[in-house]
Request: fold
Amino acid sequence: MGDVALTVAFIVFSAATLVGAIGVVTIRNLFRAAMFLALSFLAIAGLYITLHADFLGVVQILIYAGAVAVLIVFAIMLTHRPERGNPPSRFRASALIIAGLLAILMIWAAVQTTWPMSGQPPLDATVPALAQALFGPYVLPFEVASVVLLAAMVGAIVLARED
Amino acid sequence: MTVTLSHYLIVAGLLFCIGLYGALARRNAVVILMSIELMLNAVNLNLVAFSRYLTPQVITGQVWAVFIMTIAAAEAAVGLAIVLAIYRQRQTVSAEEVDLMKW
Reply:
């Protein structure tokens, strides 16, 4: 990818990510908020691809833009009562101040810090390297993660079951 | 303009703060869960950006991003199941009305 193309892609995907996120936290209509969430997830997948993380980009689309977004739309449809509206909580002003201060702090830290940048080129194909890492040094966390997923699945079924 | 690590960190920081604002400022439990997903995504974006710019030949950051995605998916499933159970019991998903465990 050329440098200019990368820059343009970064700007477009970042803007879409942030617009989607702002839509999620400000729009009153819950279903539209979920659609903005899906937009944000898709744009983050684009950002992963600009970072040469192609496998993670595809996984992001499958898990977040696919599964999590559908799950959230289901939850909204099962619990939504439009007649009650969707008012913000009474902590709105203080939440804005806290989030703003944290944003300023993090941007300042990101700009001021001298990162130990590596000039090496990224890997061409990340899938073999990821597979070797997941089934080599990280095989124990990988197995524990599958047990966590199984427990979460059983727990979700038990919690959501009608009885 | 060349895109550098700092740009990705700024985007991820802003995304995290938007998620934090949503988690604190909204009443609906589903919106709070959506905001938490945004914050987890911001962390993942940070990890992948660090992996790309600081250790491009070693893929550790992406491996951790995979684990965070797994845990986030489990969190979303259990969180939404809890929201459904609360809705069935109390007919509400407002975080301010579910205060049984508040001191």
User: Anything to note?
Assistant: Residues 1-84 of chain A form a domain with the Four Helix Bundle (Hemerythrin (Met), subunit A) fold (CATH 1.20.120.1200).
